Amino acid sequence: MKIFLCPGSAENQKFKRWPTSNFNILSSFFLNNNWEVGIILGPDEIYLEKYFNGHEIIKSPSFKKLANIAHNSNLIICNDSFLLHFFSFFNINVLGLYGPTDPNRTLPLNASKIISSRFSETRPCWGLPNYGNCDDGRCSCLDGLDPKHVYEKALAIINRDNNNF
Amino acid sequence: MNHKPIILINFWGLGDLIASLHIIKKRPANHYILLTVHESLTVNSLISSLYISSDVKIVSVKNKFFVFFVLTKMIIKKNLLVFTSPLAGNSRKLANFLSLFTKNIILAKEHGNIYKNNESIIKLLK
């Protein structure tokens, strides 16, 4: 089984990024169960490489390369970012991680989602003056997203897929 | 099939642009002109990687005056203008303004899921 994790998002929307430490914990769950895990980093996200020691890292792939990845993966997990939209176009298993933004607005119709459980009166904040910086200049919406829960959601997606065959 | 190109307009990020490309995917036989803020080369490469083989011309618009010029020209030529979802802020204001001058215009809903909004547009296109 092959899974890809996409820990980035646009540089001016870093607040959409689930912490790299959480991606690492999530990755360890998969690796402990003999999954292959790849990390995809866009051109503006290469500096995140240092947080993923020991992983297969695909840096700044072309769109063609991304399309190839789409066809060779069992599941791709992304923040609410370009890659969430890109991979969902191929009707493959994609899981979107949502914190400050609203899946009711941006989630591709064939993608799955998991939403942070942290309560915030200002969430979702898209279109509001405090977009991305409501908590002392830092977005804390993704703090309520636990790697264990993301892992369980990922397994549910894969098992659903297997049961359909 | 429409012989006159349909003008798809999306001034948002590359991710949001993919929601607009679903329209082309679902109605591949039409000719399209896609107005975007991104470089033509980038968008052409993106379209190719998504296995979209429709006739799509990319017009990269970087400033307001050029946008206005291009859209005015399209209105005079009676092309169908489709402001795709997401459509909010200044883009929506522009779309609302232009809708005063032409009936050949479709505006995506402002609220709700951007993909569902574009599905509604797909139903309006042949």
Keywords:
heterodimer, A: 165 residues, alpha/beta, Rossmann fold, 6-stranded parallel sheet, 5 helices, 6 strands, 30% helix, B: 126 residues, 5-stranded parallel sheet
| Architecture (CATH level 2) name of chain B | 3-Layer(aba) Sandwich
**Count of individual beta strands of chain B:** 5
CA-to-CA gap between the ends of chain A? Answer: 16 Å
The largest beta-sheet of chain A arranges its strands as: 3-2-1-4-5-6
Rg result of chain A: 15 Å
CATH architecture of chain A: 3-Layer(aba) Sandwich
Helix and strand composition category of chain A: alpha/beta
Task: Tell me what you see in this structure.
The complex is a heterodimer of chains A (165) and B (126). Chain A is of the alpha/beta class and 165 residues long. Helix content of chain A is 30%, strand content 18%. Chain A starts with a strand and ends with a helix. The model of chain A has no long low-confidence stretch (mean pLDDT 91). Chain B has a single domain (6-124), classed as Rossmann fold (3-Layer(aba) Sandwich). Chain B has helices at residues 14-26, 40-49, 64-76, 89-98, 114-124; strands at residues 6-9, 31-36, 55-60, 80-83, 105-107. In chain B, α1 (14-26) packs parallel to α5. Chain B is globular and about 35 Å long. The chains are: A alpha/beta (165), B alpha/beta (126). Chains A and B meet through α2, α3 and α4 of A and α1, α2 and α5 of B.
